[in-house]
Amino acid sequence: MTEPLQWARYHWQRLMGSPNRDDDERPYNYASLLACGGKSSQTPKLAGRHRVVVPHIQPFKEEYEKFSGTYVNNRIRTTKYTLLNFVPRNLFEQFHRAANLYFLFLVVLNWVPLVEAFQKEITMLPLVVVLTIIAIKDGLEDYRKYKIDKQINNLVTKVYSRKEKKYLDRCWKDITVGDFVRLSCNEVIPADMVLLFSTDPDGICHIETSGLDGESNLKQRQVVRGYAEQDSEVDPEKFSSRIECESPNNDLNRFRGFLEHSNKERVGLSKENLLLRGCTIRNTEAVVGIVVYAGHETKAMLNNSGPRYKRSKLERRANTDVLWCVLLLVVMCLTGALGHGIWLSRYENVVFFHIPEPDGHVTSPVLAGFYMFWTMIILLQVMIPISLYVSIEIVKLGQIYFIQSDVDFYNEKMDSTVQCRALNITEDLGQIQYLFSDKTGTLTENKMVFRRCSVAGFDYCHEENGRSL
């Protein structure tokens, strides 16, 4: 299956809320399928939903294409829009604003000949300008996410090539389920994979999970039982086992499955054997693992609820005020319409106040009052100034510019200033009411810098750190 078809199929299943394809295609235990002579395995199945992971090497080419080759690759996309859905989706989100719905209603109303008060094109112009400015701002924000996704997808790591028979540099986006990945110290894990080898004598790998939960303390992961005793690095060409594990889910603290050898012997797998995408290898020279979840099926991505339209307190308050203004406008227009109808009914016989239509037909006072109600809504639309929203968007852009240009926010080590990720909630800065902390350095960086020490009467100092402190 080609990559675009995989991506479309995956997102269609998520949109429709259908079960994972693993459940539909493989409701049985794969060991019974591979058993010789059609005999089913006597070992129990993995309970619940599960998937089969076949190593991406030459001896398992057919089985890989049947099982692991049908899963999504490691490419990710966190952007909200595409070129096809940008206009409809952005308009849908913008019309969550009560004011935009109100002005759209006025534009439509002004196209009705009986109640038309202004030129149609002039009525449309302010709304089009506001929607265009906000759409450009949202498009730029989403384009920045696209560039970050592209940068992440093009990161390079060592992946075993079945053609070259060695580890080669490959982009993250090209990693698939069943690939063997070799990582070095301080390297970020590109996908969820089962740990098969570690240079640590005890078969332990230390990882830092700050990219997932903010915890900077190191956690241990264990090589799969049976591989920890090996002195040499695992050879993918000699790897003849298969993995059966649970279907992708967002539970970071659970992983169930087993590794089945060619002799039908099974070894249980748990979360201690799983390296999660986004974590960093620490204090371990090198590790080797086989990918079981990739791309949007990794636990880190499944915990990402996706981009959403963020609304500030000011915007929510403005929506409420607009509703009150609309209610006041309706009352005023209703009063004017009733007065107009009463006036015409009282002077119904006076031709000066009762001008007939070109065809000689005279409109009744009730119908004339009804038309006057909608005409007054157009005439009194200035009660809700659309220029207010234009001013707010311009102020936001100016505020973002000054925030990103502030030299006091410049970081010398990273050689960058502060980056404003969400352009819709800048006015909420400085309005924090509650601050929760678990005292682990999640919200603040606990950093210790060596300045000086004394050993056996000798003073050892770090002049550079001393000056910086």
UniProtKB/TrEMBL annotation:
Q: Which cofactor does it need?
A: Mg(2+)
- EC annotation? 7.6.2.1
Where does this protein reside within or beyond the cell? Membrane
P-type ATPase N-terminal domain boundaries: 65-123
Which ranges does the record mark as transmembrane?
99-118, 124-140, 322-343, 371-392
User: What does the UniProt keyword field contain?
Assistant: ATP-binding, Magnesium, Membrane, Metal-binding, Nucleotide-binding, Translocase, Transmembrane, Transmembrane helix
Does Amino-acid biosynthesis show up as a keyword for this record?
Answer: no
Broad class of where this protein is predominantly found: membrane
**Per its UniProt entry, what is the enzyme's top EC class, as one word?**
translocase
Which reactions fall under this protein's catalytic activity? ATP + H2O + phospholipidSide 1 = ADP + phosphate + phospholipidSide 2
Residue positions binding Mg(2+): D438, T440
One function term, GO molecular function aspect:
ATPase-coupled intramembrane lipid transporter activity
Q: Name one GO biological process term.
A: phospholipid translocation
Identify the GO cellular component terms for this protein.
plasma membrane
Q: Which NCBIfam families match?
A: ATPase-Plipid (TIGR01652)
Family note: Belongs to the cation transport ATPase (P-type) (TC 3.A.3) family. Type IV subfamily.
Protein name (database record): Phospholipid-transporting ATPase
Provide the organism lineage as a comma list: Eukaryota, Metazoa, Chordata, Craniata, Vertebrata
